[in-house]
Design a protein that fits this description.
6 strands, alpha/beta
């Protein structure tokens, strides 16, 4: 076994874009939002009005359906723009699809029965309100920042009023009518607008994007979250059932059989005590050996459930113990911080990581024909990454009925993801990402 200490990976999240870059991204989002909102408002209002107005003549139904499809297209454009502002992955709802073989009229009614299509329509009409307000504020702040901060460059070219009643802002504030006072005041105001520009523009962009997110992806996110939770629940039930079946089989094939033989040996020794004490002694010696073997098997089974070393000393020591029992050389690369009191993981994450490594190495020993293996465990941002690789024959997959399927269920139950890369001929790498 070779053990290598790996430096702890930083838990800091990925750095956000720089302030100037984010400023231009937010500004482009807000300023482009107004023409898109106007076009969306005009198209959808006209389509909705015509569709509703002609619905009694049946012609309005296709128009209304087409309007909903147009709203879906405009909503998709907005969804493409959201990730740059919100720094979140793009989410597109699962729209209702027409049934196979449905006729034209049934297809016309499909978007009308889809709640998300009506949310897209509502967003396309109401977004104009937010777009106008944020556009005006953003444009005004940009104008004040540029005009004020550069006032010193064009003050000389501005005409001055000669009337006694005409006073500029510097005079009204009591700063006098000198050029220095005027330039100093307007430049200071420009600098103020320039400093606050990223904050104000960011706020406008978030206001517009948050409204779009709530209308266009809120329901989809909720449905996706429910789907993920249901999958995790099914995976947890499947993993627990598989673990119980395996434990039952191992107990039946191992300790239970030894205990039956132990009972028979003790009964035989009892009958031999009176007639043949020497034979009884040999039988008792065999029973003692059976007891030791049974205890050894029970310890091995307990290591697969919740080994004491994992609870007492943490994941690095538990993984080192697994590697030490390996039938082939195993290189262990582990973050040493995971074994310290401050760096210990949640018990559920530790148990899952231990299970992944233990089961993966068991599969390596049984099926891979490998000559060496590698185990690497380290923090990667907000996840724990577990990698088990070998130089075996490859061909591993996650099909049900195979050993890796149980690992995949266990990882999904913990909210993680399992990836298997195992081309025919090898090598094989199993990667598990577990949320911390």
């Amino acid at each position: 076994m070779t053990m290598t200490a790996v430096a702890a990976t930083s838990d800091r999240p990925t750095l956000a874009p720089s302030i100037p870059r984010q400023l231009f991204v937010d500004s482009g989002y807000v300023l482009l939002g107004l023409p898109l909102a106007v076009a969306s408002f005009v198209v959808l209002i006209v389509g909705l009005a015509v569709g509703i107005g002609l619905v009694v003549t049946v012609i309005g139904l296709p128009i209304l359906s087409g309007t909903l499809y147009a709203a879906r297209g405009l909503a998709d454009v907005e969804r493409l723009r959201l990730p740059a502002v919100l720094h979140q992955p793009r989410i597109r709802p699962h729209y209702r699809l027409p049934e196979v073989g449905a006729n034209a009229w049934r297809r016309i009614f499909v978007p009308m029965r889809d709640a998300q299509s009506w949310l897209d329509l509502a967003h396309g009409i109401l977004r104009l309100i937010a777009a106008v307000g944020t556009f005006v504020v953003t444009l005004a702040w940009w104008a004040a920042a540029i005009a004020g901060s550069l006032y010193w460059a064009y003050d000389w070219a501005l005409p001055r009023a000669d009337g006694e009643g005409d006073q500029d802002l510097a005079q009204l504030l009591g700063l006098g009518d000198s050029t220095t006072a005027r330039i100093g005041l307007y430049t200071a105001l420009g600098v103020f607008f320039l400093i606050t520009l990223p904050i104000v523009v960011r706020g406008c962009a978030l206001l517009q994007a948050s409204f779009a997110k709530a209308m266009l992806t809120g329901v989809a996110e909720m449905r996706d979250r429910i789907t993920v939770l249901e999958e995790q629940k099914r995976a947890a039930v499947s993993a627990e059932a598989s673990a119980l079946r395996r434990l039952e089989r191992d107990i039946h094939d191992g300790p239970q059989q030894r205990l039956v033989r132990l009972a028979m040996d003790l009964s035989r020794a009892r009958m031999q005590l009176a007639s043949d004490p020497e034979a009884a002694g040999h039988t008792i010696d065999e029973a003692v050996a059976q007891t030791r073997d049974t205890l050894a098997e029970l310890r091995a089974l307990s290591r697969g459930i919740a080994p004491p070393i994992l609870v007492d000393r943490g994941l690095p020591s538990a993984l080192a113990a697994i590697a030490g029992r390996g039938l082939i050389p195993i290189e262990l690369q582990v973050d040493p911080q995971l074994g310290t009191p401050a760096g210990r993981l949640d018990p559920a994450v530790e148990n899952t990581a231990y299970f992944v490594v233990s089961e993966a190495l068991t599969n390596v020993a049984k099926h891979s024909r490998a000559t060496e293996a590698t185990v690497a465990v380290a923090r990667k941002g907000t996840h724990l990454q577990v990698r088990v690789g070998d130089d075996g024959q490859g061909g591993a997959h996650l099909a049900k009925g195979h050993g890796l399927a149980g690992i995949a269920d266990r990882v999904r139950a913990a909210g993680g993801e399992l990836v298997v890369v195992s081309p025919t001929g090898g090598p094989t790498e199993i990667r598990a990402e577990l949320p911390l």
